[in-house]
Amino acid sequence: MSTDAQPSIPRPHSIKRNTALSFAVQVTSAAFTAVLVIFLTHKLGTRGYGIFSLAVGIGTLVLLPSDFGISTSVARFVAEHRQQRDRVQAVMADGLRLKLFFALVACVLLAAAAGPIASAYGIPDLVWPIRGIALALFANSVFLMSVVFTAIGRINLQLRVAFAESVAELIASIVLVLA
Fold first, then answer.
1. Which of 4, 8, 140, 145 has minimal CB crowding within 10 Å?
2. How far apart are the first and last CA of the chain?
């Protein structure tokens, strides 16, 4: 089958629609975060919430370099080659495999380093929150691949992913705190 005859990625939505949907993605994420912060501050108290926030900060410092630029590179390739569906799918599959590998390595290393990190801060109670964040980091790292939806101009798909991610994050955080 020639490249010309291959079905292409669906046409992007209009700029107006994608702008509105991008705003909806941000509002969705912010709303779930607000609910989570209210729950966590109420349930954990100031000390517990401080420890949780420190663990999240440490996790964020690991999240960004663990991406290795894979998400952005895949998104750019997809945007530039959207008419070549087979190549796009192959690159997306390769990108996802790389994301899973690097996210797993980063999370295992973070979980293993939780003890020394907690000792460096002088907060022994920080060990398990860091390990919990390491687990959440894995999922969050994989969700970074949703930038591909921006690359193809289909923000409605990114909105669905953001909603699913926010629900999962909210439920996981509540379960971890209650446990």
1. 4
2. 54
